[in-house]
Specification:
The chain is of the alpha+beta class. It is built from four helices and twelve strands. A hairpin with a 6-residue loop joins strand 3 and strand 4. Keywords: Cell outer membrane, Ion transport, Membrane, Porin, Signal, Transmembrane, Transmembrane beta strand, Transport.
Length: 387
């Protein structure tokens, strides 16, 4: 077999340079498509094995069709035919080549604008002699090539095939260039891009994002709750990191350091709680006044409450004395049972009709005298008062 490889490589190289001219128009090749096209190849024969009918080369135009059925795989049917003369007898013969090939495409690889591929081909080489029998032989080999999409519906294909032929165990080959019209092109759906992770800012570094932080600018290192606010264990409104007096009683009035504010002078409240005749039960409409008194006692948890019961002058003095005490006790029981005040903080006493504040000779005066005086007593603390 003559050495035609330099000529083959030269032809192949010229075709490659021609393709570079369309590189600027190249497009990505689809994942799947069908195609039909035409081509031209240059086929080299093994002259040493063909005897007196020796052939050199022949240009074979032809057609091809195929399917790219996966991003990396395609199958192709190939047919080409032309006349050729014997180098010795000058007899004219028609040569045709039919092939079926399976190609693997390096879909994620590129050589410039081209996608490389490699494959296997098998088929039949046929010689139609004038006036003589037709010679047929099986051929098989590999193929290597490059493809580029030069327009929306067109793919350019260039490659080479080294082939083994059945008769006399010859090795031949061809280079080719083809243009394919593609249709039914699809591309594998690209995965939806993941949404960008939102930028989470925590300006004060307390572990709670700014958009949830109800207390921005918390000092570094301060323990916070889920809303980003400093913890306030005793609920006095002064955060723990500033609270000089933790565990203040619930509801107690505190200063800016979180320490309990003590009552410094007695506070007297007159409760005009009406009772039914000869009874000590508190009517529902007067519960609101007791609620205010209970709230004041919670603000000053160290203060004691003194309840003084009074009556008008109607009835016997001894009876009024007893009734006034019962009414003071009734107020105490309501504070304890309805508002949760510690009974140890409340003292009661009855004065009967002895301390009127209005004229008992009139109905209005008698109504004012039927009362309970509530005295919230100042806390006796060492150094608070002078003798």
């Amino acid at each position: 077999m003559k050495n035609h490889f330099p000529r083959t490589l030269s032809t192949f190289g010229l075709a490659g340079l021609a393709l570079c001219a369309v590189a600027a128009q190249a497009h990505d090749i689809p994942d799947q498509y069908l195609y039909i096209g035409g081509h031209a190849s240059q086929y080299w024969f093994d002259e040493d094995e063909l005897g007196p009918n020796s052939y050199d080369t022949v240009t074979l135009p032809g057609l091809q069709f195929g399917a790219r059925f996966a991003p990396n795989w395609s199958a192709q049917a190939w047919w080409e035919r032309n006349g050729v003369k014997s180098e010795i007898t000058r007899e004219r013969t028609h040569v045709s080549l039919a092939l079926a090939s399976l190609r693997y495409h390096f879909h994620d690889t590129s050589v410039g604008p081209f996608e490389p591929y490699a494959g296997l081909a098998v088929g039949q080489l046929r010689f139609d002699h004038r006036g003589r029998d037709t010679d047929k032989e099986t051929v098989a080999g590999a193929e290597f090539g490059l493809q580029a999409r030069v327009a929306e519906h067109w793919v350019f294909d260039i490659g080479a095939r080294p082939l083994w032929t059945e008769w006399r165990d010859r090795f031949e080959g061809e280079v080719y260039a083809g243009l394919n019209l593609i249709f039914g092109a699809t591309r594998k759906a690209e995965p939806e891009p993941l949404p960008a992770e939102p930028v989470v800012r925590d300006s004060d570094g307390d572990g709670v994002p700014d958009q949830q932080d109800q207390c921005p600018d918390t000092p570094a290192g301060v323990a916070v709750d889920a809303q980003g606010c400093p913890l306030d264990g005793d609920g006095d409104g002064v955060p723990d990191y500033l609270d000089a007096c933790p565990n203040t009683p619930d509801g107690a009035l505190v200063d800016e350091r979180g320490c309990q504010v003590y009552l410094e002078r007695d506070v007297r409240e007159t409760l005009y709680v009406e009772f039914e005749l000869n009874k000590a039960e508190i009517q529902q409409e007067f519960i609101g006044e007791l609620a205010q008194l209970a709230d004041m006692m919670r603000k000053y948890p160290s203060a004691q409450l003194r309840l003084e019961g009074h009556t008008d002058s109607t009835g016997a003095a001894s009876y009024n004395m007893r009734l006034s005490g019962q009414r003071a006790d009734s107020v105490k029981n309501s504070l304890v049972n309805s508002f949760g005040i510690d009974p140890a903080r409340i003292d009661t006493v009855g004065f009967g009709e002895e301390q009127p504040i209005a004229d008992n000779s009139t109905a209005d005066g008698r109504a004012q005298n039927r009362r309970v005086e509530a005295i919230l007593q100042a806390t006796q603390r060492e150094g608070l008062y002078e003798d």
